[in-house]
Write a structure and sequence with these properties.
By secondary structure, this protein is an alpha+beta fold. It has helices at residues 30-40, 44-57, 66-79, 81-99, 220-223, 226-253, 260-288, 295-321, 324-328, 330-342, 349-363; strands at residues 124-127, 136-141, 144-155, 162-169, 172-179, 185-187, 202-214.
């Protein structure tokens, strides 16, 4: 269906609750945060500062308010997918530090983060990807730990103060906190020709004798339950980003020119997102209750369900709205491009195969 002018995404009612049981329950409210988000979009330093401000009061994952945390991420992605893509790793890093026993406000610094310049105003990335032909190693010297090598897929490295980085210590990986502003750190500016998330440059970083401090023991980063929790936080962002497209479908379906087909597209999108919402809400409860559920299995189920729902909504949106909003509505076209790229953090059939293996492990291979 096409229209004389492209449908625009409506603003949600004040206090609209996405994933949490509460109405306008967040303090400060996500509606206030989102008003600020509208000001900083496209201005990376301001966006990063906004993320730091949100992190000062946002709940930490697994601490009893996981649904509220995911609501913040979903609400942000509803307003701007790229901003959520910036916010999620910063909040993830703060959660990781909490899980490692750090509370700088409470004067708990068991890993010596202050020695690398960390304070309440630090902005964080989490750089844990590996790439063919690239390797980052950590070596302990008489004066402390240093990082040597190259790390791929380091989002916004040129704009952040600090990062949590995985590096090899022998054959195993360990997590380190590192200042990105020191002379031994060089962030690449590309290649990055992305049409989606175009401001969230994710390129390699070279480390040459960069001072760092370990966070957790060898292997802790990957073994902790919070590793799976972080993957579900990303799914909350996907969900919020797709919700904006679902609302555009609702505007189109309410038009005087709409027919039954427009209602079909809306219904399919709504059902997919409602199912994913239920999965996210249950997962948040399981995380907060420290359920004995295998968190790896839970995360793959949540991510797979949500990725499928968001992909379905993208398809329904393309079919229902046609090309006009993709070429004439900047906000809509950017949301579609951003969400398409963000969803590539789900690895399709490979992640589905991993889920299948985890199912067999949990149920006992026949």
């Amino acid at each position: 269906m096409s229209a004389a002018r492209p449908p625009s995404t409506p603003e949600p009612a004040l206090g609209r609750s996405f994933l949490s049981d509460r109405d306008a329950a967040l303090a400060p409210s996500t509606s206030g945060w989102s008003d600020a988000a509208g000001v900083v979009v496209g201005d990376i330093p301001s966006a990063v500062a906004w993320c730091v401000d949100v992190g000062r009061t946002a709940p930490r994952i697994g601490e009893g308010a996981t649904a509220d945390l995911w609501e913040i991420l979903a609400d942000t992605a509803y307003r701007d997918v790229a901003l959520a893509r910036m916010l999620e790793p910063h909040l993830d890093a703060l959660g990781i530090l909490t899980q490692a026993g750090t509370d700088l406000d409470g004067d708990r610094d068991p890993w010596g983060l202050r020695s690398v310049g960390v304070d309440a105003g630090s902005s964080w990335g989490v750089f844990a990807a590996e790439g063919a032909g690239l390797r980052l190693e950590a070596h302990e010297t008489a004066s402390g730990w240093i990082l040597e090598g190259t790390k791929p897929w380091c989002s916004l490295a040129a704009h952040l103060t600090h990062a949590l980085v995985t590096a090899f210590v022998g054959a195993e990986r360990r997590l380190f906190a590192v200042s990105l502003g020191q002379p031994g750190v060089a962030a690449h500016d590309g290649p990055w020709i992305a049409r989606g998330l175009r401001d969230v440059v994710s390129a390699s970083v070279d480390f040459a004798g960069a001072a760092a401090v370990p966070v957790g023991d060898v292997g802790w980063y990957l073994r902790r339950p919070g590793f799976a929790w972080g993957g579900m936080s990303v799914a909350a962002c996907w969900w919020g980003g797709a919700l904006g497209l679902r609302d555009a479908l609702a505007v189109a379906a309410a038009s005087e020119r709409a027919d039954q087909v427009a209602l079909v597209h809306l219904g399919r999108a709504d059902a997919a997102l409602w199912a994913a919402r239920a999965v996210l809400r249950e997962a948040a409860d399981l995380v907060d209750r420290r359920s004995t559920t295998d968190m790896r299995l839970l995360a793959e189920r949540v991510r797979g369900t949500t990725a499928d729902a968001a992909t379905r909504v993208l398809s329904e949106s393309d079919a229902a709205l046609g090309p006009l909003p993709l070429v004439a509505d900047e906000r809509h076209a950017q949301r579609v491009a951003d969400l398409h790229l963000y969803l590539r953090q789900h690895h399709g059939m490979r992640d589905s195969a991993r889920l299948g293996r985890l199912v067999l492990e949990a149920e006992g291979s026949p």
